[in-house]
Structure formats: structure tokens, C-alpha cells
Backbone:
């Protein structure tokens, strides 16, 4: 992560959920896990080995032309491991050994633009971040992703407006599909 993003990321986190703490979560990609399918990937872990699904936000830096761009908070789920695992976790990057006991782990392959520090993804836990109905796919998202401009540059502000409008449109479509019981 670029060092200059730290203070702005903390400010963004405060706007999202002032009670939550930004965490560095180790990445241990589940074999066969799909990018952009974190809820399904974590549900698989919970069903296979126990633990829990923890909802929150993953952060991305989105450059806009030659400007500072913006930060995006994207719905995300990580796995809270059970006390004892029947296998050893294989870390994406070199990590301290797993000692057991309720560790937050990101099991989903991260997109390139995701912010990380030393191989650990940045995650803001927030139980209100996403409500889902899970039926083999993710349906009924109740909140859109969030975006935070890193400057007052007109290009950035237009990008943020367009991003929010697109997210709102997508959120409304998910809402209609959820009510109709359809899948995307």
C-alpha cells in the first residue's frame, strides 16, 4: 500500500464504521476459490470445517487518469476459523505459523487493486456491511459499495459520482432480483 494512503484510509474507515478496527488479515487462498465470490468461498469453509463468516469491507485504490484517484470499500467476507483445524493453512505469502484459535483468514483470491500490507489484506469488519440470502449464489445485497475521493480534482469527483450512480443502479437490480427470487 502506498504510505500516503494511510491517513485517508483511516478517515474513510471512520466514515464507514467508527466502532470497527481496520485489520490486517492473512491471505490463505482456498484451492478452487473464485475471485469475486468471497461469500461462497467462506460459506464453503464454514460448512466443511466450522468457524464463521465475518462480513465487512475490503479496500481498493482506484487511480483516475493522472490524479490521486479514490478509495473503494467493497463488500467482503472472511473466515473466522474454528479453534482447531483438521489441516494446516498454506499462506499466500510468508506468515507466522497458525497457532489455532479463531483467526480471521481471507480465503478468496484478491484482485490486483486490493490494498495490502506485507501480504495481508486490509479488512474492516462490519456486521451491517452486507446482508445476503445465500442459495448457491449471492442474492439480495442490501448495501452498495462505498467510494472515497482522494482529491477534489474534477476528474476524480466525476468518477466518484459515476461510480455511485452505477452502484445504486446495480443495488436496485439485485433488490428486484431478490424480491422476484431470480438470479443474476
Residues:
Amino acid at each position: 500500500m502506498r504510505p500516503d494512503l494511510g491517513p485517508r484510509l483511516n478517515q474513510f474507515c471512520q466514515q464507514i464504521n467508527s466502532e470497527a478496527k481496520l485489520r490486517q488479515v492473512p491471505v490463505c487462498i482456498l484451492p478452487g476459490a473464485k475471485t469475486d465470490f468471497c461469500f461462497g468461498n467462506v460459506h464453503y469453509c464454514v460448512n466443511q470445517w466450522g468457524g464463521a463468516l465475518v462480513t465487512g469491507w475490503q479496500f481498493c485504490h482506484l487511480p483516475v487518469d493522472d490524479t490521486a484517484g479514490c478509495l473503494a470499500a467493497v463488500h467482503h467476507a472472511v473466515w473466522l476459523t474454528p479453534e482447531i483445524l483438521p489441516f494446516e493453512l498454506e499462506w499466500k505469502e510468508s506468515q507466522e505459523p497458525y497457532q489455532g484459535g479463531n483467526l480471521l483468514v481471507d480465503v478468496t483470491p484478491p484482485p490486483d487493486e486490493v490494498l495490502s500490507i506485507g501480504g495481508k489484506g486490509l479488512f474492516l469488519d462490519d456486521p451491517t456491511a452486507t446482508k445476503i440470502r445465500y442459495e448457491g449464489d449471492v442474492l439480495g445485497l442490501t448495501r452498495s459499495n462505498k467510494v472515497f475521493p482522494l482529491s477534489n480534482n474534477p476528474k476524480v469527483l466525476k468518477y466518484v459520482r459515476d461510480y455511485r450512480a452505477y452502484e445504486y443502479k446495480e443495488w436496485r437490480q439485485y433488490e428486484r432480483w431478490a424480491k422476484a427470487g431470480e438470479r443474476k
In short: The chain has a mean pLDDT of 78. The helical segments are 6-16, 38-49, 154-180. The longest strand covers residues 52-62. The chain has one domain: 3-180.
